[in-house]
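thread: overnight batch results

M.L. [08:02]
morning all. the overnight job finished for the chain we discussed friday. pasting input first so we're all looking at the same thing
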Amino acid sequence: MELLTNLYLLLVLSFAMCQGQRSSCDRCDPRLTCNCSHAGYTLVPTVTDRALTLDLSFNDIAVVTGGDLTGHEKLLILILHRNRLSEIHPSAFDSLWSLERLDLSDNQLTAINRRWFSKLGALQELNLLLNPYSCLGTRPVLQRLVRLRRLMFGGPALEELRRGDLSGVSQLEELTVQANNLRRYESGALADVWPLGRVTLSLHGPFLTNIGLASDVIGDVSYPETPIFLKDLHLNQSVQPFREMASRRVRKITFCNLSVSDKGIVDFLEAVDGEPITSLFMDGVTLIGEGRWEKASLTDHKNIDEFFLRNVVVLNVFQFSSLLQLGFLLQYPRKVSIINSQVFVMPCATTYLLLNLQYLDLSDNLLTDLTLTETLCNGDGTLKDLRVLNVSGNALKSLSTVSRLVTNLSKLTHLDVSRNGFISMPGGCSWPSTLRYLNISWAKLTTISPCLPETLEVLDLSNNDLKAFILILPSLRELHLSGNKLLSLPPGWMFPNLQTLTIQSNTLNMFTRSDLQAYRRLQDLWAGQNKFVCSCDFVYFLQSAIKGGEDVHLSDGEDAYVCDSPLYLQGEPAGRVRLSVVVCRRVLFVSVSCVVALIIGVLVCVLLWRLHAFWYLRMMWAWLKAKRSSRRRQPREELLSYDAFVSYSERDASWVENFLVPELEEPRENDGDSLNPRPLTLCLHKRDFLPGHWIVDNIMSAMERSRRTVFILSENFVQSEWCRYELDFSHFQLFDGETGSDAAILILLEPLSKDDIPKRFCKLRKLMSSTTYLEWPREEERSGEFWRKVRNALRDEEEEEEEG
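M.L. [08:03]
and the structure it wrote out:
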């Protein structure tokens, strides 16, 4: 048989490999939880070998091979729920030494192989539900699972349970057995597990066809401290299993998906008469009959402390008689819950029967203000021991009516009226002085009033339409305001003892350190999921709080605080935003920028002043202006008044006045030339500049009215700034279309090379490289030749003009 199984597995594996290679799954979060569910995988995908949780549920995986999970020694949780698993290689899980939870439920496994679990010594939870196997195997399959604490097995095909099936399992916190079609049960099959926590049994078929078998199963798992959950029952047959259960002194029984008649309930009450059952839970009940309870009126159930009924449907409800006949049962419990059972009224007479009631839950029913008045006996304080009242999810409209009905409940501490239709709050209300917890969430309140009692320690007003909360509640420790329209935190000084504040999903823009400091004892703040404006102060404060730098703890985590504006930060977690200095310290940045700009400006101005840039700009502007005006007036030839403008240093004035002027301006005897030389007209600044005019205008005018410019070069010239300006202006003229390229004449009074001239005299250095210059001779006999060359240089242009 084993050989055939291995051959079949080989064929399945070969077929799967022909279908394609294994895919990879990269849907792993930072906690190394890989959620690969609902992805359509047909083979086990490859994932990181560091994964701690691997969820492969809701795929189409048909086989797990021996190598699919190799290398996953760190894996703690493996979920293969709801696939098409029909074959698992015997060594498929051998490498999963650390596995603590394995879910193979809702697949197509027809047999359970003990080899699967032989290396899973750390396994604590195993789910084998809803597979088509008929038994747990021919040998004990769970022998090696010594640490197993939660076991779920069974399904529609499970027919047999034998002694030894759970061999190796010594104790369980939870056992779930789905055996609706169980046919054979070997007494004691489930009895060896001790201690045993919660037990859930689905025994629909045995209760209908083999009541003895059902009694054996229930008897083997019935212990005083073990809660028993019975599912999918029709409680209209023999109640022998419950007598077995009662004899084992089971205290907590829960029925899920129960169909029962009034006669069945009477039989059950008689079966457990006098037994120490303390809690009776029924969830999903269909009740038929007429409500005849008389036969059970003499039974003793004084140990029952809690009744829990949820999702109850009473067929032919109008044929049911009053519950007054259940007085023998209702006088004992301290806790009664009737939830989502279409209860529209509980008559006051029935309320009087609840003598010991401390907890009443009538949530998700059809109570109105009128029927609640009947239920609470018009507020006469009948339920004198009631401490907790839950009437949430009904059709109540008037908060003042509720307060009036409970004001005489002298021990009431908790009141839940959430999910009702309150649209306003009266100006004043009367409440019991003992009230500490009040829940009015999920209503339609737009404002609050002093109707709220000052004794409250916990107040829940979540999911209303409140835009402000201003009310002094000195005893309040918890305030829940999520899901409203609040623009800011409530003033902290009104709640001197507040420790927890939840204000998520409102319209908060921001809050500051001073806002929270107003709450003297606040410890936990839940304020995420708002539309935060991520200003610098808010971001800095929030990041400080996230890092633990504040007394208040942001309990909902940094990812809940997301920027809504400015637009470029929208959707970014405020805790990870990095704002620039330009944004956060704008005044400081502008101030520093202005100071730096001012310093740079001053430095630039000083540099420009040192380089005489302003003078050059002004000179250029004046020269351009003069050029335009001169062109509008008359041609340059008509403006010429001098043969040369002489540029020289004041320290060289004696040479100019004693040598240059007499030689060039005074008439001379014929020196051998055929023509007597004509005296030249020179422009000297000491003599010819117009007084009262800007010196630059005088320089420009003199150069404009002179054919040539003569530069008297010497050390004094190089040291004179004004000479430099005249030199620069002359350089402008060199590029003027109306002047020649030899408009400048250089005369060296003393030896001066280009390298001796400072680099700042760039124009002079350039002229000396491109223009022939005349040197003043030290020998007197050579002076005649020097003056002749000067005259010839000054007259060349004039002669050319005359020839033209």
